[in-house]
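Hi W.,

Here's what went into the run:
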Amino acid sequence: MKKYFENLTSLGIMTVLLWTLVPTKVLSIPAFSRKYRTSCATCHVGFPKLTPFGESYRQKGFQMPEIEEESIKEEPVPLGSEGYKRVWPKAIWPGSIPGSSPISFRIRSGFKYESDEDSEYTEFTQPALQIMAGGTFGENISFYAGAHLFEEGEAGSLDRLYLKFNHLFSNVLPYDALYVRVGQFVPDIVPFITNHRALTMTAFAFNTYAPAYGSGFVPGHVHGSGPFGLESFQLGAEASGILKSRIRYVLGIVNGNGVEEDNNLAKDLYFRLGYKMGGLAYDGTSDGDIYGPSGNNWAEKSLAVSAFGYRGTGVSSGKDVDFSRLGVDLNLFMRDLNLFGGVITGTDAEYHGGELHEEKYSLFFLEGNYMIYPWLIAVLRYEQANPEDLDSFRQVVAHITALYIANIKFIVESRLDPDNMEFNNLYLGMDFVF
Amino acid sequence: MRQVAIFIVSLTIVLQPLFSGDIKGTVICKGVRDSRNVVVYIEKVNTPVPAPKESVSMNQVNLEFIPHVLPIVKGTTVDFMNSDNVLHNVFTPDKCAEKMNLGTWPKGEARSYTFKEEGCESVVLCNVHPEMEAWVLVLQNQYFFRTDKDGTYKIEGIPPGKYTLIAWHEKLKNRSTEIEVPEKGEVEVNFTLKRR
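Here's what came out:
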């Protein structure tokens, strides 16, 4: 054990030395960076976590709030001029495609240490390779495609694949009032803590917990079959919009059983309704200087409050069973500190021996992200699930993200059980995109 | 009586430089790449000059209409020249330009159309190359200016009086303002155009 930590200490010292030798702000080149010739840091704080600006960019269909056209450095290829809108239906509605292939890759690998009462275990972990493509087909249509090509030693699968129709009916509705995306996606129920935007390796129990896991629950990302999770990939359609700059709504209808074929006639429904005070509004507009003296694009003062709900129908013993989730979440930015949390209640149902059993639970979490430097972020999270008929589940996650350059980061993370604060696991990770 | 009228108009034209002002300023465009191709113009004047007898030209070069925006006085004839080695077509879906379609013609030739309706904002397209686009703006008078990248403009020799000054852009929301042009000197008016 001591030996491992001597090695880890050496690794840490080497890393710190390397950091002092290279500049920390450089241009990274995933698809959106290439399109605008801008750094990852424009939209991300230690990718994949989004800055408020990045969140606005995402919600607006991958378009720069207010300054989309003048920001594009990589000219798209027009598929007809704007004037052809006047010719329709006697001509094809005009659009565009990206000027170059909008493909990006993300590669993660690491080293982990685990121990229990009997043994210790270390491993250089299998790398994960993810491919992502995103962009716009003109102002009114956006697209995103992503696949885990290789993960945990096995071939991966498609994760997100959707079209998003932007600014619908903007001649009669406010410009950002209606967006619709169709395809396979992660429902925008609690968007800022999904696996694809979180700093931590350890999944949020908030998104993934279900009483069906029993007392042996270990937070893991739900990408395929298995009990329902808020961040599961889903097939369906989702409407969203921004009203009066600071109110955002989401309404969705999905199959409800992840990426598999639908297993029943019913469809699952969900909603989210949020209000943001201060900082950058959801539509990317702002009132004056929101970043304060530092000018850092994460350093706003804001509070967003949202409520959400999900009502679904699953299958147990060949019969339809209803389940639900209801909750609220908060997202507070106080300059270098981002504090966020949420409370959720859930009801699941299953048939046991021909009888229907309901299982209820509540869960809350609180996480703080502190920007020590623009390239160094400390994270601490606490989560607690309280199922009615099972033992509580609790976890503490401690994490550090360190950007080597804007598109390469190293992470250190450990997950602790508050009932037994013994240190028994550590993950050192390397993560880069291009 | 007719001779008197001609005399008054002639006198006005001759003396106008002695009693006229200028309008200048800058247009800032937000939401587009730069501030070019904004047309700043006076909506109406009492004595507009008639359309020029000579036609003006809009060329087609390297699959682009040049200029991209062409402000003209009502009644002006525009010659659409093809300078490319490929066939081009010129048409508009706009009623105010009679949905003109000049057909298709080869390099070195031009076809013409006279824009008759004041206030017409006609988009000009090519059926052969859907990405080509230009605009013809048909105005009441000759007091207009098309901006370059920097957005600065200057309209000179305007008779003193009160007018409505308009800044037009193909994608941005137009802005207008009431102004008073002095007998001598200049008045400065700046615009900021946004998408909505």
